[in-house]
Amino acid sequence: MQRKVFHLTQSLLCSRLRSLSTVCLFQCIGNIRPLFVLVKPEMNKTSYFYHFLLQPKPENAITIAVSARVLFNMEKEQHIYEHQGMEEYIKYQVEHETEPFNPGPAFSFVKALEAVNARLRELYQESEELFDVVLVTNNHAYVGLRLINTINHHRLFIERFCMTGGNSPIGYLKAYHTNLYLSADPVKVREALEEGIAAATMFTPEKMKEVSDNQLRVAFDGDAVLFSDESERIFKAHGLDKFFEHEKAHENKPLDHGPLKGFLEALGKLQKKFYAKGQRMDCPIRTYLVTARSAASSGTRALKTLRSWGLEIDEALFLAGAPKGPMLEKIRPHIFFDDQMFHVEGAAELGTVACHVPYGIAQRLNFHIFTE
């Protein structure tokens, strides 16, 4: 199938549609809604233009809410806000609104989501089962122009904004049917988790590793991330030997779900759409379990739990307590989730964009050494 990419205004796009004779992928920017439009010769081109102009309905999409501070590098602006106050912050943003922000830690992840969407549109032209990125920020609306200019500059496909003018945006996440919320603010992340929304605090490595442009790679810890903290509680209360005994005795009993189970489920649902088209070996989504569990002594229960949920994981790495950073450096995921800051910091030191999931008994005990 021949594929061409154009950057067009609406009027020029309509002109192209009238004369188009091959299958084309249009990327529209500027003063119209960003979108992908797939047009076949036998289609009514005008009607398909307006059909694909629409964003997917929130209840059908996989909604990823990201804060402005993780999507873009806003360290200087944040420093002004913290040391000079809101009025100086707004003044600075307005004065510099034509200057785009540089990419932040979530930028490559969002670009990878868009690459998956492009592949899905090629295979399922009318499906609304797509990633839908929502920019969620407590910025004042005055700052919105700079954010819009930045999004257009980087050619990101983000149409949904939530700017709350200093108030917490957490209450809006459910209205957006949010599947995952990423923020630099740990307080907001905890609030989201308390509302039952998958959420994590994203950290910026000093030097981020290059990641794949055509395959979304997501790495998960096990306990207190994909799974509940049940097994971790046993370890904290009774020690490592009792933990191993407990896992062996309960290896056929699935663990309860953790906060990120639903996001893995959403990724798996999209993977199956590619498998159905014979693209298992060329799937643009790849998932990893990176756990400090030992394979022989406690790995069985983890794998059986995933199987009982009907979920596949592409690669499972049981590290038996070894540091995760070096292994993640080889995987080069766009994003890694862990409930232990020790592993988050170790991953970030080696260039991985790592996210902390503040969930489970480890957070309440405030320990620094854990099993995961």
Automatic annotation (TrEMBL):
GO terms for molecular function: 5'-nucleotidase activity; magnesium ion binding; nucleotide binding. This is 5'-nucleotidase, cytosolic IAb. It comes from the Eukaryota. GO terms for cellular component: cytosol. The lineage of its organism: Eukaryota, Metazoa, Chordata, Craniata, Vertebrata. GO terms for biological process: adenosine metabolic process; nucleotide metabolic process.
